[in-house]
Design goal:
The chain contains 13 helices and 21 strands. By secondary structure, the chain is of the alpha+beta class. The strands form six sheets. Strands 11, 14, 17, 18, 19, 20 and 21 form a seven-stranded mixed sheet that branches.
Length: 487
């Protein structure tokens, strides 16, 4: 074990996320921990995650409090060697660590050692892998850097001889998975993602290929100017509390947009701004499907698939016939170096379904759904719903769908002009099933009717294809026995 304090930086938890909310500490200052022991629960825009420690030793500093949003690459926990004296409170140490981590990388590396050596260590670690890790960090025994400036004297400081240099730790612990060139700043990564710039294609102008802000700015075609919002008196303090300047009404509450809600807002905004969507819908007589399920439930009260599972089975069959709706549009580079759009088709279906949770709306996906029977789909839908509501769904389970099925009928509504789950190109919505007058064999009857709504990206197909898919699923619901026999 190292004789110096080791500082673990918040890693990239997947999907290029740049921040996470600290929900709960699982350890306290003074606790002895071992490698891969869970130390904190954090909530990302994707899921709730337990973060394991890559170090063993005594917890010296907890860099954050429950409810605080932490940036990727900033200190999460400091671990001292077993036997080192640590104070019960380490707020000053935490603040200094945050300041050091935020310092420009050049200042960190100028004294402690050659930047090229740090970058080379980074590349070596990336190529070698590091075992039982989250995305973006590992338990490697890479070289440790010494602190380049003395720690301020404080009664609450950790009693150790020296501490790591946070600049070099940023270099060796924060990066994009699979990317060999160093990317220290989460802000640089966010800027690249927001402007659709692939960091794999960006040459770094810093030492040893370090990608800096100016490199990303050049890649997006010009300098990106930072704008400081004008000070607008959104609210005004009054004798009775806080008053909104625009409406004159008292402000009842303020709720930060973060976590799942923040991710949903960003995704929906991007979908609306980029996808030229169109919508088609049809009323469907679901009486036969309900009768078939009721008969199956009599035979097997606990094993009969739910209605959503049957519809999911019809959807995967429909996507096989109309694969244009199971695609994705990406921007690529043509032979002349310009931009072009490509439609990527998939050999299979990962079927997403909307699930309402206490944390907001999430869309877990059944991987390889086209290979599953209605009974198998039902079991997987139930499992994914449970883990999503518990906040335990993985980024892969929440971000790998190719088509989404949305059963908003459970909320008592008939239809919806749905927003497509970007970057997919279509979403099928199912409304509530209610009694309606219906003509059967020339006679008026009361039937169980639902409405199917398909929102689709008009860039990938025309209305004929969308209508063909929708009609296929509708016919399958109206004649389930015949369709299931042919699957």
């Amino acid at each position: 074990m190292s004789s110096e304090m080791q500082v673990f930086l918040l890693p990239d938890l997947g999907e290029g996320l740049t921040e996470a909310e600290l929900v709960n500490w699982l350890v306290a200052v003074g606790d002895e921990i071992h490698v891969d022991q869970p130390i904190a629960e954090v909530e990302t825009a994707k899921s709730m995650v337990e973060v394991p420690s890559p170090y063993a030793g005594i917890v010296a500093v907890l860099h954050g409090e429950a409810g605080q949003t932490l940036d990727v690459g900033k200190p999460l926990i400091s671990v001292a060697p077993v036997g080192a004296a640590v104070a019960a409170e380490s707020a000053a140490s935490s603040e200094e660590a945050d300041e050091a981590a935020a310092a420009p990388p050049a200042a960190s590396c100028a004294v402690s050692g050659a930047p090229s050596a740090a970058a080379e260590a980074y590349r070596t670690e990336e190529k070698a892998g590091s075992g039982n890790v989250l995305i973006g960090y590992g338990t490697s025994g890479g070289g440790e850097a010494r602190r380049t400036r003395p720690r301020k004297a404080s009664a609450s400081a950790v009693a150790v001889a020296s501490a790591p240099d946070f600049g070099e730790l940023s270099l060796s612990r924060t990066r994009i998975p699979g990317k060999l060139s160093a990317v220290i700043s989460p802000l640089v990564r966010k800027m690249a993602r927001d402007h659709g710039v692939s960091l794999d294609a960006v040459p770094g102008s810093g030492e040893s290929g370090l990608i800096l802000r100016r490199d990303v700015e050049a890649a997006i075609g010009g300098a990106v100017r930072e704008t400081v919002p004008a000070e607008v008196p959104a609210v005004a303090e009054t004798a009775t509390g806080v008053q909104d300047a625009r409406t004159g009404l008292s402000v009842a509450s303020r709720t930060p947009v973060r976590g799942v809600r923040k991710a949903v807002a960003a995704n929906m905004t991007r979908s609306r701004s980029e996808i030229p969507e169109a919508t088609v819908w049809v009323d469907v007589d679901a009486t036969a499907l309900l009768e078939m399920r009721a008969e199956l439930k009599k035979r097997d009260p606990h094993g009969a698939p739910g209605l959503l599972a049957f519809i999911a089975r019809f959807v995967t069959a429909g996507l096989k016939r109309f694969p244009e709706l199971n695609t994705r549009i990406v921007t690529a580079e043509d032979a002349a170096g310009g931009e072009m759009q490509e439609i990527i088709a998939f050999d299979g279906v990962n079927l997403g379904f909307a699930a309402q949770t206490d944390r907001g709306l999430v869309v877990p996906s059944v991987r390889n759904a086209h290979l599953l029977s209605a009974r198998e789909l039902d079991a997987e839908i139930r499992r994914l719903t449970a883990v999503a509501r518990d906040g335990k769904a993985t980024p892969t389970e929440l971000a790998s769908g190719t088509f989404t099925l949305n059963n908003y009928g459970v909320f008592g509504v008939d239809g919806s002009a749905a927003i497509i789950n970007y970057p997919e190109v279509a979403m099928l919505g199912v409304g509530r099933i209610i009694d309606k007058p219906w003509v059967v064999g020339g006679q008026l009857a009361v039937r169980k009717v639902t409405e199917l709504t398909l929102a689709f990206d008009h860039r990938v197909c025309d209305g004929e294809t969308a209508a063909g898919f929708l009609r296929y699923v509708a016919d399958a619901i109206e004649n389930p026995g015949t369709v299931l026999a042919d699957l």
